[in-house]
Design brief:
With about 90 residues, the chain is of the alpha/beta class. About 50% of the residues lie in helices and about 15% in strands. The protein has a single domain, classed as Barstar-like (Barnase, Chain D). The longest helix is centred in the last third of the chain and has 16 residues.
Length: about 90
């Protein structure tokens, strides 16, 4: 069974907030550097099944926010690299 994490655009508006949010929701290694490259690296090696869900309102907010949109792109790229990572729009 996959763990579901609803992506909250208000919690990923900058590097520090994103790092805290991802640490809170994922079992990331101690060496996670807290930036987008490090997030991609960690997700590419992630071995638990996790699906990030995004509702319509959150997607609208993410689309208009520079940093949270970049986070979404990293998540999308991670789904191509790792079958344990999923992205679902609800």
């Amino acid at each position: 069974m996959s763990r579901m994490i609803q992506l909250d655009p208000h919690r990923i508006t900058n590097k520090q907030d994103m790092a805290a949010y991802m640490r809170e929701n994922l079992d990331l290694p101690d060496y996670f550097g807290g930036n987008l490259d490090a997030l991609y690296d960690c997700l590419s090696e992630y071995t638990e099944d996790v699906v990030f869900t995004i509702d319509r309102m959150a997607l609208r907010e993410i689309t208009f926010s520079g940093y949270s949109y970049r986070v979404l792109r990293v998540l999308e790229d991670s789904t191509r690299e790792n079958d344990h990572i999923g992205l679902r729009f609800i």
